[in-house]
Amino acid sequence: MEYFFELFLGGLTRGSIYALIALGYTMVYGIIELINFAHGEIYMIGAFTALIVASVLTIMGLNQFAILVLASIAAAVYSAAYGYTVEKIAYKPLRLAPRLSPLISAIGMSIFLQNYVLLAQTSDFLPFPSLIPEFEFWEPYSHILRSTQLVILLTTTIIMVLLTLLIKFTRIGKAMRATAQDRSMAMLVGVNVNQVISMTFVIGSSLAAVGGVLIASHIGQINFFIGFIAGIKAFTAAVLGGVGSIPGAVLGSLILGLTESFATGYVSSDYEDVFAFALLVLILIFRPAGLLGRSTTQKV
Question: What distance in Å separates the CA atoms of residue 214 and residue 232, rounded to the nearest whole number?
Fold first, then answer.
């Protein structure tokens, strides 16, 4: 039973990180119906930013908790700036272009950011410091629930609640919902659609950066390619739950994380991705819009 709970909590931890990244995919798609394939690289840049900031703060002698908070804030701000810039350079000029054009631009931006970090850093895996202290009072159950897992779960839960409140009760949240429902009508009633789209990229990028910091601290290493793998998994989770649905992104991420964890624990780590993508195929066959997605009709 302990082994089951260990896998269960590990799956929730994976799913929580996927959720932080998947929210960026689903928010952008909900607003402009575009898959931002450079989103995984924003996650990776956030992790590298945190590594650099944490290294400097460690030399300055700050305590572990202060380093975690400041590195996370720096990563979120820096990644938000990247998300904003990517939207202005790669996507805004193509907003009225055929849908294939921004898709190709997104893939190109992803490749560019990968190679940019490769040249600026290194192709090797770099050690990432453990910024989350281990709590001794979890003994003798520390092998089931580590403090890093607890922090990841709590942080993700708090972020989900705050994001839900932002979208439901704030002015920018209402503008996002209006733009997602009907962009032209939102413009007619005075919504600054360009500002809403930019803010969506900023929020999504910040969430991905926080996920990058947490998972890098949990695993203990990073390299320039982690954004591609995490991005594909998070995109899979968003599709699984229903692209464009924020609750769907969270649900899909948790299901994907649990599937991978149990497949690794009870079958083999070699088949981790096989089970995850097989689940996606089954969902798309029997529910093409995703678990919480809504089917739409197109006028011809």
Answer: 18
CA dist 153 and 81 (Å) reads 26
Eight-state DSSP code of residue 270: G
Question: Alpha-carbon Rg of the chain, whole angstroms?
Answer: 19
Phi and psi at 82, nearest 5°, equal -65, -45
- Cα(192)–Cα(171) distance, integer angstroms: 12
In a domain? residue 293: no
Question: What pTM did the predictor assign?
Answer: 0.88
- Is 259 within a domain? yes
CATH classification at residue 55: 1.10.3470
pLDDT tens for each residue of 109-165: 999 999 999 998 888 899 998 888 776 555 655 566 777 888 888 998 999 899 989
Residue 296, in any domain of the structure: no
Kindly report the number of other CB atoms within 10 A of residue 142's CB atom.
Answer: 13
3-state secondary structure (DSSP) of residue 110 = helix
What's the farthest any 2 CA atoms get from each other in the chain? 64
Amino acid identity, position 218: H
With CA atoms as reference, report the closest residue to 151 among 133, 175, 169, 136: 133
